[in-house]
Write a sequence for this structure.
């Protein structure tokens, strides 16, 4: 196992690419801290990985909130002593901002 003992924090870990990244890292022996906004989906992923023998910590986190990010790293350090790898996979979609840009672009045409 290439990553035995390493600690990885993965944001956006409850679905899609983040979930796949979490699976890959724990298969290689890493301890994983899973972060995502949806606590229910996050717990499902954590339970799946733990059932495979992985050491996992699930921390509900909204990365757009500084206080959540602080808690994420405090819990990571408390549980595993350190963080070796950060996978910043969480995506934030600002639909209102996007719509303003699209509307402005449409008027310019």
């Amino acid at each position: 196992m290439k990553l035995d003992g390493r600690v990885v924090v993965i944001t956006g870990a409850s679905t899609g690419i983040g979930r796949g990244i979490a699976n890959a890292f724990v298969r290689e022996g890493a301890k994983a801290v899973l972060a995502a906004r949806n606590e229910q989906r996050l717990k499902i992923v954590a339970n799946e990985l733990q059932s495979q023998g992985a050491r996992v910590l699930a921390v509900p986190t909204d990365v757009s909130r500084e206080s959540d990010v602080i808690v994420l790293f405090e819990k990571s350090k408390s549980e595993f002593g350190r963080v070796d790898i950060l996978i910043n996979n969480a995506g934030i979609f600002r639909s209102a901002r996007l719509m303003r840009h699209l509307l402005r672009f449409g008027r310019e045409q």
Q: What stands out?
A: The radius of gyration is 17 Å.
